[in-house]
Amino acid sequence: MKVLITGVAGFIGYHLAKKLIASEYDVDGIDNLNNYYDQRIKLARIEDIRAIGGNFQFKEVDIAHKESLGKIFQESEYDVVINLAAQAGVRYSIENPSAYVESNLVGFVNILEECRGNKIKHLVYASSSSVYGLSEKQPFNVNQNVDYPISLYAATKKSNELMAHTYSHLFSLPTTGLRFFTVYGPYGRPDMAYYKFTKSILSGEPIEVYNHGEMKRDFTYIDDIVDGIIRVIHKIPGSISNKDAYTHAPYKIYNIGNNKPVSLGRFIEVIEKECGRKAIKINMPMQPGDVETTYADIDELISDTGFEPKVQIEEGIKKFVEWYKKYYGL
Fold it and tell me: For 100-107, what is the mean pLDDT?
C-alpha cells in the first residue's frame, strides 16, 4: 500500500509516518514547514523519519497551492491519502483567521479534488473535538448536533466534514474524518499546554492556569492516536455498516480519544511529579474559544476497528518529560 501523508512534519504526521514505514508501507510526505511554531522541531522530525530507513520521500509542498499539490499526485499513484495538514490552534484562529481559510478550507478542497481526480481508494482526514463547541451532552457522540462552533478553527474542521460528505455523495469518494481529542506525547507541538507547562516548571517560571484548573480534557497519547488511524485506513466506508441514518455515501466520522477526561489540575500534578518540581501557578479566566470539558464517546470506533486506548496520563507524561529533557539536553 502506498500512502501520502500531508502535514508529515507535524506532531501526528511524524509519528504516523514512522509507524507506517516500520510496518513496511511506502510513504510519501508533504509539509509546508510554516513558522507557526519553531521550524527546527519540524525539520528534526523529518530527519528522524529518514533515519529509520524504509521507503520514504519528503517534499516541501503547501496543500493550498493547487499546482504544486497536483504535481505530487501526478508523480505517484496513491492508495490512501491521510490529510493532517492544517493550521492548528483555537486561540490563534482569533488572531490570524486568514491562515485557517487558506490551509483548512482552500487546502482541503484541493485535497478533495486531487483524491477525486486520481481515484484515491480512501481519504482519511483530521477533524477535531473542537467541533462540539459548548455542547453539554457528555460524552460527545458523533451523531449529535455540531452546528454551533465557538472558534474559527472549529468551524473550519466542521466545514471539512461537510465538504468530505459532499465528495463522498457526488463522486463516491470514501472519506473518514477523525475528531482528535487533545493529543500529547514526545515531539509534540510547543504551543500545547503540557509542553509549555513542562518548559516553565523545569525552568522555574510561572504557568498560566486557565479556569483555575477546573477544565477537563480527554487527553490521548500519540501512540493510541496512531494505532487508531492505522486501523481506520483499512476500514473503508462502504465496507462497514453505516450507522448514520442521514447518509448512504461512503462516509464516516469517528471520535478518537482516551474516553477518560482528566482535570487540568490533575494533569499539572502529573507533570510536576515527573519534573520533580512544583509549578508556580497564575490562575486565569477561561479563554475565548475554550470549552470546559471534552469527553469522547469512542464506541463506534471500537465496534468498527477494535480500537482500544492503552496509555494513561501517568505513563504518557512520563514519556514526554523524558523526551523533553533529552531533546533539550537537560
Answer: 96
Neighbours of 67 (CB within 10 A): 7
Q: What is the mean pLDDT of residues 233-250?
A: 73
Label residue 281 by pLDDT band (50, 70, 90).
Answer: very high
Separation of alpha carbons 63 and 111, rounded Å: 7
From first CA to last CA, the distance across the chain in angstroms is 40
Assigned C-alpha cell, 308: 482500544
User: In this structure, are strands 183-184 and 175-180 parallel, antiparallel, or unpaired?
Assistant: unpaired
**Domains with residue ranges and CATH for the chain:** 2-181+221-259+295-310 (3.40.50.720)
Output the pTM of the full model.
0.94
14 is catalytic: no
Which secondary-structure segment (H or E) carries 227? helix 222-233
How many other β-carbons are positioned within 10 Å of the β-carbon of residue 152?
21
* Relative orientation angle of helices 193-203 and 264-275, to the nearest 10 degrees: 40
DSSP of 195-208, one letter per residue? HHHHHHHHHT-EEE
Confidence band for 243, pLDDT divided at 50, 70 and 90? low
8 Å CB contact between 124 and 233: yes
Nearest to 250 by CA among 170, 173, 166: 173
Annotated catalytic residue, options 37, 132, 153, 187:
153
